């Protein structure tokens, strides 16, 4: 399911879901601010979670069968951005940086 917008109040916990069919060995989450390139947030690969370096505060991931949920704890105005998931890396080079 694709959602156009997710609304939350400052301080709310926000969950964004990424659904896929079939198998996925790695799911990458990114955040993009207007006029800026995508920023890698977190990766779940074969049950192992790898955050960005340095990690983005308040960002966690929860992987269920065919669904990966990005959790933003205590959302702030600065969390307003476009979030997207990818089954393959979309930023070349070292995905952790």
Automatic annotation (TrEMBL):
Gene Ontology terms: cellular component: T cell receptor complex
Domain Ig-like as annotated: residue spans: 1-97
InterPro entries named in the record: Ig-like_dom, Ig-like_dom_sf, Ig-like_fold, Ig_sub, Ig_V-set, TCR_variable_region
An example Gene Ontology biological process: adaptive immune response
Gene3D superfamilies referenced in this protein's UniProt entry, alphabetically: Immunoglobulins (2.60.40.10)
A Pfam family: V-set
Key words of the record: Adaptive immunity, Immunity, Immunoglobulin domain, Receptor, Signal, T cell receptor
Alphabetical list of PANTHER family matching this protein: T CELL RECEPTOR ALPHA VARIABLE 16, T-CELL RECEPTOR ALPHA CHAIN V REGION
Entry protein name: Ig-like domain-containing protein
